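hi! just following up on the protien thing from before. the input was this:
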Amino acid sequence: MTQPPGQPPYGQPPHGQPPYGQPPYGQPEYGQPQYGQPQYGQPQQPSGPPPYWTGDYPPPAKRGNGFAVAGVILAIFAPLLGLIFSIIGLAKSKARGGAGKALSIVGIVLSLVVGAAATIVVVEVATSVAHSPAADPACISAEHDATQMATTLNADGATITKDASDPSALRTDLQKFQTDMQSLQGQLTSAQGEAEHQSVKSRIGALNSDISALSASLQAIENGDVSQASQLNTVANKLQSDGDALDSTCSTL
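and the predicted 3d structure came back as:
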C-alpha cells in the first residue's frame, strides 16, 4: 500500500513528535521530578542566602552593675549614699549594655523618698522638742539656779547639824539658812515669770509656796515655838516632793 507523500512510515510518529509512550521533548517522564525540583521525599535546597541574615555578630551578654545594686540597698539605710551610688550606676549602665538601669532608677527614687521621710521626721522631732517643757526657759533657769543653790543649802544643813548643841551658833546658822532659802525663792520667782508652759509655772509656784512655809516654820522655831518642829518636817517632805515633780515636768519632751 502506497503512503501519501509527506507522511512518515506506518508506526512512526510524525516529525518532531516523541515515540508513543515517551514524554515530549524537554518534559520529565511520569513520576520523575522536573529539572531543578527535588525528588519526592527530598528537602528543597535554599537557592539564596538565609532570609534573616544581617551580617552582624550576636549582641554581647550584659554585664553586672554593682553600683546599681549597692544604690538600692543603701537607699534604705543611708539615703544620701544610696542616691550617689544609684546615679553612678545609671551613668555606667549605658556602657554595660543597659545593665542596672532599672535598678539605678529605683535606687534614686527610693533614696529621695526615704531621705524626704527622714527629713520630715527630724523636723517634727525638733519642733516637738522646741515646744516641749524641757525647752521651757523657766525650766532651764530653775535647773541652773537650783544646781548652784544646792551646794550652799547642803553646807547650811551640815553647819546646823554641827552646831545643834550650841544655841548661839545654831541661831546664826538658821538665819543664814533662811537668807539662802529666800535667795532661792527669789530666783524661782524670776524663773516662773519666764515660764511658757502652764504646767511648769504651776510646779515652780508650788515649790515657792513650800519654801515660804519652810521659812515661816524656821522663824517660829527660832523664836521659841517648839511646836513647829513637826510642821517643819511636813513642809520639808512636801518641798522634796514638789521639787521632784518640777524635775519630772522639765524632763518631758
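DSSP finds seven helices and no strands in the chain.
The chain has two domains: 66-130, 133-249.
cheers
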